[in-house]
TrEMBL record:
This is Nickel-dependent lactate racemase. Transmembrane segments: none annotated. GO terms for molecular function: lactate racemase activity. The gene is larA. Pfam families: Lar_N (PF09861). Residues 13-219 form the LarA-like N-terminal domain.
């Protein structure tokens, strides 16, 4: 294959970047560039001093019917699947300025509980906590991982016919604060805001509804759609019952730099962040593509999380097209939990597009993580065959990746020492050659540079998707 006129591009792979060559006719789909905040510390302080639709933290603390030294504060933070800038040593860190204000207002360090809103995800490691929050926080404050299976969760009553229970440490605090990153989410429309509570701090049984087959099958349960999105609406109802006193969310650009800080009322400040997000994340395309190359982003700590990037190609990949997905999968469990692996086996057994109908049957018993597999099924239904996905990673062992739906990137490299850039490049060569032979012409190809953080849409379908841009 003659590649003299091919162009070099950089591709994110966890904390690293790969360099690969793409055909000259490949469209590079990039989010609108938003420059990072010049003085992030100043913007964080300004957001805290002038919250959207709520009182300041200081006033909220003063309104408590007890001395500030006895006020207990719970702060929900995101886990390792969200690149939220928390670190106390970083100019972009949002957590330390928040803690500093609490202390200045008279709240004692030992009365602050930082709760990692893991939802049903695996607990976070001590190493991750130190890297994410910094020693100035980890050595002075108690950090707790939420456990959705705990028998000691706090009941808040029924929401849409389901009994909901919340992390007790959070509920029993005098003041409830949530934090997060606002980015596209392929089920709830966008992340951040109410998602810190639901699914972040809820019980497993409530997750069965939030991530249930009907919610997942709803066409409004997709990227950037909030109106009539059952996941968003359920999460909002739960968050309202919990009572969130203060919220701080951020937006970041494709380079991971802070672009906006939105503090105050849970709903009002979140909607301000959503407006900013839509301005930059939507990429309008004129047509669908035969081949789409994408990357899992930092969120793709495992195969479970990489589903977001795959699903994100659905609006722009042709029926039966090929997708090359590059994901670092550097978690201790690079595929996901045992339940997830078990349900993936069912997907592989049933075939593309048949899994969702199967789990709608009365004979099916709900299994945690089936929701993510249902999104994989929607993706595979669009590309028609498992082998039309080439999954490139060095994070999942060769034999384990071979068992998963899709074609293993290891098929395109030889030897014991595997170089991810060679794996990806050879996968690109293969896809271009295969489609060229099939179509008798150069295939239409696109590279989604920012992976799951971008939302590529066909122009004529943007309104049908419920996204106002």
């Amino acid at each position: 294959m003659n590649i003299r006129d091919w162009k070099s591009v950089e591709l994110g792979y966890g904390k690293d970047c790969l360099s690969v060559k793409l055909p000259p006719y490949c469209d590079i789909l990039k989010m609108r560039y938003v420059p990072p905040l010049e003085d992030p510390g100043e913007h964080i302080e300004d957001a805290l001093s002038h919250p959207v639709g709520s009182s300041t933290l200081e006033d909220i603390i003063a309104s408590c019917k007890k001395p500030s030294s006895r006020v207990v504060v719970a702060i929900a933070v995101s886990d390792n699947t969200r690149p939220v800038p928390y670190n106390a040593d970083s100019r972009e860190g949002i957590l330390f300025p928040l803690l500093r204000r609490l202390k200045k207002a008279g709240v004692r360090n030992e009365n602050v509980k930082i709760i990692v809103a893991t939802g049903t995800h695996l607990p976070t490691s001590d190493t991750w906590k130190k890297e994410t929050f910094g020693e100035a926080i980890t050595t002075k404050y108690r950090i707790i991982d939420h456990d959705s299976t705990s028998s000691d969760l706090f009941p808040i009553g029924s929401v849409e016919g389901t009994q909901v229970r919340i992390n007790r440490e959070f509920m029993e605090a005098d003041i409830h604060i949530v934090t997060g990153l606002v980015e596209p989410h392929f089920m709830a429309g966008v992340s951040g805001g109410r998602k810190a509570i639901c699914p972040g701090l809820i019980n497993l049984e409530a997750t069965h509804l939030f991530h249930g087959v009907e919610f997942m099958d709803n066409p409004c349960s997709t990227n950037l759609v909030l109106e009539n999105n059952p996941c968003h609406e359920f999460a909002l109802k739960v968050a309202r019952k919990v009572r969130v006193d203060f919220s701080i969310n951020v937006t970041i650009n494709g380079d991971g730099n802070l672009t906006g800080v939105f503090a105050g009322d849970l709903e009002k400040s979140h909607l301000e962040a959503v407006k900013r997000l839509k301005e930059s994340s939507v990429i309008l395309c004129d047509h669908e593509y035969d081949i789409v190359l994408t990357q899992g982003g930092k969120v793709a700590v495992n195969h479970y999380q990489a589903a977001k990037a795959a699903y994100g190609t659905c609006p722009i990949i042709k029926k039966g097209g090929m997708v090359i997905l590059v994901a670092h999968n550097s978690d201790e469990e690079p595929v996901g939990k045992e339940d997830y692996k078990k349900v993936l086996e069912v997907l592989k057994e049933k075939g593309p597009g048949r899994f969702t109908e199967f789990i709608k049957s009365k004979d099916w018993q709900f299994i945690p993580d089936q929701w993510q597999v249902q999104k994989w099924d929607q993706f595979f239904k669009k590309i028609a065959f498992f082998d039309n996905l080439i999954y490139c990673t060095t994070g999942i062992p060769r034999e384990e990746l071979k068992k998963l739906p899709g074609r293993s990137g290891y098929e395109f490299v030889q030897g014991e020492k595997i170089e991810i850039d060679k794996m990806v490049q050879n996968a690109i060569f293969y896809a271009v050659r295969r489609l060229r032979q099939k179509l008798k012409k150069d295939p239409e190809m696109a590279f989604v540079k920012e992976g799951p953080y971008a939302v590529p849409l066909i122009k004529e379908g943007e309104k049908n998707a419920g996204v106002n841009v």
